[in-house]
Model the fold of this input.
Amino acid sequence: MESQLSILQESLAAKRQVLLEIQEYNRKQEAVFTAEEVDMSLFDEAIEEKGRLVQRLTQLDEGFEAMYEKLARELEHNRDKYAGQIRVLKQQIKEITDLGVSIQAQEARNKSLIESYFSRERSNMHRSLQNSAKAYNFYKSMSSLSAAGNQSTYDSKQ
Done:
């Protein structure tokens, strides 16, 4: 039983480590979108790595849940016997929960940064399209004037 509790503790320690790595990738994403020049390849890399970490987190959660279900009754009936290990597990779960809340806050901030970036980009693209249309219309008008000027010159020479 104690070795199984140790496995649960190791699983929680691994989950904590994965969450810390996710936090680091969130910081990298934030840096990408707060930089003067946005490098989307860095953002894409962070997204891919976070996806891999989330998969790892899911595996750890599933393993923990399966092991805990096996041990739950024994722990319930012998609470005093395993009080120290239960206390350690509770502390680890609290730390993991706090990390999860912190990550959610990071994700919300990053989502806002990303939305703001894409909004600016759409606005810049719209402005660029408008400028291109104005330039094209100007070119077309000048071509028409030039053609009309050449036509009148040609007509007056006859």
Notes: Residues 32 and 42 are 7 Å apart (CA to CA). The chain has a mean pLDDT of 86.
